[in-house]
Write a structure and sequence with these properties.
Layout: H1 3-19, E1 36-42, E2 45-52, E3 59-63, H2 76-80, E4 85-89, H3 109-122, E5 128-133, H4 136-146, E6 151-157, H5 172-179, H6 183-188, H7 195-203, H8 215-224, H9 229-239, H10 247-257, E7 261-266, H11 280-283, E8 287-292, H12 298-317
Parallel strand pairs: 3-4, 3-5, 5-6, 6-7, 7-8
Antiparallel strand pairs: 1-2, 2-4
Helix pairs in contact: 1-12, 3-4, 7-8
Keywords: Hydrolase
Protein name: Alpha/beta hydrolase fold protein
Pfam families: Abhydrolase_1
Length: about 325
């Protein structure tokens, strides 16, 4: 066997182990792929994170979307951890991190990015690749534009940096809230925080709904339903309006620094449709582009495909 063949076999086995495909139930888990669940203090907040892989390997920072948490990466982490140091934090107000009230913490994307920036520094992450999905895009692009020297590659999965991706029906009531932060417009968005809306996010656009585990909304919805959490999410819906004005700055970062980028985009997403993926081609020269026949949470249906694409991409980019 040549080196390339050995590499492909290793990646395939790693993917199979992570996604539970044809693996014996009694197969022991590798110490390097074992996921650790940790908490670190950042500005009096407990920031929960999942971590796996050798710390002397290149780091992959996984930034989750709404309304989930690092839980969305539960299978991807061990799939990458044989070769990479993988870290996935929960933002304040999400997952197992602190969720102070809106009176005690200003829930803006600037502040989420600041917490994650301090988190990377607390963990000593000097260089990293970033997986950006949904809310992870405005958090991660703030980091990248501020510290371009720290970012080795970008992996973009249904995360926007162009106006073309946020001009669909989903965004009309959200944009109305940006223009007028009234109770009426805020209350109109509370339907996005219901169990039906959460299921819709996970199941719309998938090829086979039977592949989507109810453990997903079973994890997310109780957290959304915590007292005070609706106000947290409404604050972030409003703050999302701070992101489009920064798009030109992020696009200038792409053009100037040309980070190697992998696009793995669920093309049937009704929130961030494929229209938001194509504009990256305008500004990035070192770009791998994949539209997948699935929905918003592409990892749920196409996690094995995405992990293989990431391993191949990072293998090429981080060994140059």
């Amino acid at each position: 066997m040549n080196l390339f063949h050995n590499s492909v076999v290793a990646m395939t086995l790693t993917t199979i182990l992570a996604y539970g495909l044809s693996v014996r139930a009694d197969e022991p888990q590798s110490l390097t792929t074992q996921v650790l669940h940790r908490t670190v203090k950042i500005d009096d907040l407990d920031i929960f994170y999942r971590e796996a892989g050798p710390k002397d390997a290149p780091t992959v920072l996984l930034l989750h979307g709404f309304p989930t948490s690092s839980h969305m990466f539960r299978n991807l982490i061990p799939a990458l951890a044989d070769k990479y140091h993988v870290v996935a934090p929960d933002y304040p107000g999400f997952g197992n991190s602190s969720a102070p009230s809106v009176k005690d913490f200003d829930y803006t994307f600037d502040n989420l990015a600041s917490v994650i920036e301090k988190f990377t520094e607390k963990l000593g992450l000097k260089k990293y690749s970033i997986y950006l999905m949904d809310y992870g895009a405005p958090v991660g692009f703030r980091l990248a534009a501020k510290h371009p020297d720290r970012v080795q590659t970008l992996i973009v999965q249904n995360g926007n940096a162009y106006d073309e991706g946020i001009d669909n029906e989903f965004w009309k009531p959200v944009k109305a809230y940006w223009k007028d932060r009234s109770k009426e417009h805020g209350d109109a968005l509370r339907s996005l925080l219901t169990l039906d809306a959460t299921k819709w996010q996970y199941t719309t656009g998938v090829r086979n709904v039977e592949t989507i585990s109810p453990d997903t909304w079973g994890h997310v919805q109780p957290l959304l339903d915590r007292p005070g959490n609706q106000e947290i999410q409404l604050a972030l819906f409003f703050s999302y309006g701070s992101n489009p004005p920064l798009y030109p700055q992020w696009q200038e970062y792409f053009r100037k620094h040309q980070p190697p980028t992998l696009i793995v985009w669920g093309k049937n997403d009704q929130i961030f449709p494929a229209a938001g993926a194509f504009p990256y081609k305008r500004d990035l020269k070192n770009l791998e582009f994949h539209l997948l026949d699935t929905g918003h949470f592409a990892l749920e249906e196409d996690g094995a495909t995405i992990s293989t694409l990431i391993l191949e991409f990072l293998g090429k980019q981080l060994t140059k």
